[in-house]
Design brief:
0% strand, mainly alpha, 86% helix, globular
Length: 349
């Protein structure tokens, strides 16, 4: 080993460190996948606690008991989430027939303009109900497995809600617990890293929620003015999609434009596209810099890589969790850099 040049030995040492870190990370991912029914509720509860922390702290500040304040916060979450689900489902039920009819009319228009190719599209639109019924029969054959998945999802949601209650109620004990578990001499560093990571997640969740609300309201109002069917449901889709940066906005906006194109025609679709682009420009150039200027800033390339990695590991849930977890990691890195970064050498006279 001593016969090798110093740069080669350093390179080999760095390679060993990178491989070891990658192996540890991969084992951690595998363990999380195996224990997903316990890991996912914990992560969701942490995100929920970061989002609902201000409301809980305000209730405690006005004199409400901690347990009561945490319970009221959880009840508010159930009410808001349940209301959002009801709005989306009701909007889809009310406008589903209208959207299918508009798609059929659009296919007929294409058939008149483009001949045989459009005729096949018209046939597909005309037979949409038959296709959906066949799909429903196929889905019914997997009902047992579907029920198990639904049961697991409900169990994880209930566990996450209970964990949100305990995390909020016992949040004042978190620092003491971390200091007790930290190795000797590292309590201050561990506490500072945890606080910085949680502040990054909290800032991301609050900023994203506020931006998502503004985007959803603006796009819903625009679609209502344009008389696009399912405007409220599409606005709710925009709100949910905002938690997946860039990709979620693109998908939800594309769905709104396609619905406008199918039901109201090309001109209204262009107006809908203009509304979506205007809202996205407002978000990117005004809301994002103004609202999230105090949180951890991440380059768009890092965000896209995080979303891609999260999707490859855990699908849609991974896409939702990837960015806040990356924000937490950036917060830890910034704290370590602030504590252990080398200070610049003083200039010589």
């Amino acid at each position: 080993m001593h016969l090798l040049p110093v740069p080669v030995r350093r390179f080999a040492a760095w390679c060993a460190v990178v491989l070891l870190a990658a192996a540890v990370g991969w084992v951690g991912v595998l363990l999380c996948a195996v224990l997903r029914t316990a890991v996912v509720p914990v992560l969701l509860a942490l995100l929920g606690s970061a989002l609902l922390g201000p409301m809980y702290r305000r209730l405690v500040k006005v004199g409400v008991n901690r347990s009561v304040a945490a319970a009221l916060t959880c009840v508010a979450v159930v009410a808001v989430v349940g209301g959002a689900v009801y709005i989306v489902v009701a909007a889809l039920i009310d406008s589903g027939e209208q959207i299918i009819g508009s798609l059929r009319r659009a296919a007929q228009d294409i058939a008149e303009r483009f001949g045989a190719v459009g005729t096949s599209l018209d046939d597909i639109a005309a037979n949409a109900r038959e296709l959906l019924s066949r799909f429903g029969q196929t889905a019914a054959s997997g009902l047992i497995s579907g029920v198990s998945v639904v049961g697991e999802t409900i169990a994880m949601a209930v566990l996450a809600l209970l964990l949100v209650f305990f995390f909020l109620r016992d949040s004042h004990r978190a620092s003491g617990g971390l200091r007790a578990l930290a190795p000797r001499g590292t309590a201050d560093t561990v506490e500072a890293m945890a606080r910085r990571a949680f502040q990054a997640v909290e800032g991301f969740m609050r900023g994203t929620t506020f931006i998502a609300f503004i985007d959803a309201v603006c796009i819903t109002v625009g679609l209502l003015v344009l008389d696009v069917p399912g405007a409220v449901g599409l606005g709710a889709l925009v709100f949910v999609g905002a938690y997946i940066p860039y990709l979620g906005a693109f998908i939800s906006g594309a769905v709104a434009v396609l619905v406008a194109l199918a039901d109201r025609g090309f001109v209204i679709a262009l107006w809908a596209l203009g509304v979506v682009l205007a809202v996205q420009m407002l978000e990117g150039h005004v809301l994002q810099p103004m609202i999230q200027s105090r949180t951890v800033q991440m380059h768009p390339a890092v965000v896209m890589l995080a979303i891609t990695a999260g999707a490859s590991v855990a699908g849609l849930l991974g896409m939702l969790l990837a960015v806040p977890l990356t924000a937490a990691a950036f917060g830890v890195v910034h704290e370590l850099r602030a504590r252990y970064g080398t200070a610049p050498e003083p200039s010589k006279p």
